[in-house]
Each structure stands twice: as C-alpha cells, then as structure tokens.
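Example record

One chain of 190 residues, shown exactly as stored in the release files.
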Amino acid sequence: MWRAVLLLSLGLVLQDLDHGAAVILQDYAALFVVAAVVLASPGRWLLGLVGLVLPIGSVGFLQGRLVAPEVFDRGVVAISDPATEIVHGLLLSGPYPLITWLAPFLFIADAFPRATRPLVVTGQLALTVYVGHLLVLHSAPDASTADEVIPAIGILGVFALASLVVSSLWRRRFRQGPLELLLHLPWRRN
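Predicted structure tokens for this chain:
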C-alpha cells in the first residue's frame, strides 16, 4: 500500500509537468492495490482471473469507446483533477485504464525466466527509468520526439536499449535503483 500511495502521488504530480506524456505511475498505483489482493490468491484462481479479464477488459473498453466516447475519453489524470475523475480515469477511461492493463500485469516472467531477464532487471528499476524518461522528454523535447513513425521508432529503440543496458549495469552493482529505494524506505533497517 505504501508503494501505491507513493506512485499515485508522484504520478499525479508528474502529470502536471509540461512533457507531453501520459504518466502511467498513478495507474501502477491502482495495479499495486489489485496485486495486494491477488498475490494471496491460489495460482489456479489467478489464472482464471487472467482468462476472464483478458477478453472482457479490452472488449469492455473498446465497447465503451464506441458507445460512450465522452466517458471513455483516454484523458490524462493529474493532481488538479477532482477525486472522482481520478478514480474514473484510473479504472476505465485514462490512457492506461486498469480495465485493459490488469491482464498483462498479472506480468508471465515466472514461466520464461531466461527470456524475460532483461525486462525483469529493467522492471526492477522501472520507477527510475520512467522518471528519467519523463525528465528527458521535459528537458529535450525536440531531441526526444518525432512527428513521423520511423524516426519515432528509432528514438524509442535508443531509449529502450539504453534503459536495458543501464538497468543491467546498475543491478550488477546495486540492489535497487535510486528511486526504488524510496519504495522500500518504511521497511529499511537502520
């Protein structure tokens, strides 16, 4: 729950910066709340939940976009929004609504550990990498964005590769990323 509170607060504040990105941290906060519930569940129940959420979540969201596009508007949620709009955006209509992201979050790394290792290592520094990405977008918008698909894919590829390499090198030397340390502060021993 500490992680959820930290990510929700950080995400809502970062969304108000002028970087042009839809911040996902507040959506991860919602996923952490769900994770707190489902991690205690038996594997069979979890697999059934994924089987249910995978088709219903995406179809439900797409159906909502067709029937009520003003309700499922994919607008960003920020600290300046009313609480009801924040909850609605996180669950149903924001750029990363829980209704569509729940199934992938219930994350396949245990089944394919070697193949997913680089992603897992980067995921262990996800907060640091993500905040770094937003800061790059904020400080160098012309160098970090493109109007055409091919250059945009190149920029994305460079950032993704740099994230994988830096995360792997960092994890060889340190147990946690600098911002991930904040997620564990209440439980650290002096």
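Notes: The chain has two domains: 1-107, 108-190.
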